[in-house]
Amino acid sequence: MIALYQFPVSHYCEKIRRAPDTCVPILDHDDRVIQGSDSIITYLDETFAEQSLTPATEQLKNEALDWEQYVDREIGKV
Questions:
Q1: With 0-12 CB in 10 A as exposed, 13-18 as middle and 19+ as buried, what is 32?
Q2: 50: number of Cβ within 10 Å
Q3: What pLDDT does residue 77 have?
Q4: Taking the CA of residue 77 as centre, how many other CA atoms within 13 Å lie in the half-sphere pointing to its CB?
Q5: How far from chain centre, in Å, is Cα 44?
């Protein structure tokens, strides 16, 4: 079973932008608890490689990471 605990209107749940030590989002999968959006994506990519959330090619992966950093920096500002 996979469960994601989140606060629906929290920007932290969309992406932990301002406080890395916030308590959400949290993924609970088979009694393993993963905290933080980056860690959750990495865990899901490793656990379910056939359905990776991260692009397969280096170019697309780098583009996705660039966008993620841009959103964290510019849109995630308070």
A1: exposed
A2: 4
A3: 57
A4: 4
A5: 9
Taking alpha carbons only, the member of 74, 60, 62, 71 closest to residue 37 is 71
Output the pLDDT for position 22: 55
Tens-place pLDDT, residues 46-57:
999 999 999 989
Q: Rounded to an integer, what distance in angstroms lies between the CA atom of residue 32 and that of residue 12?
A: 21
Q: How many CB atoms lie within 10 A of CB 37?
A: 20
- Domain residue spans of the chain: 2-75
Tell me which amino acid residue 17 is. Answer: R
Q: Which tokens sit at 7?
A: 């606060």
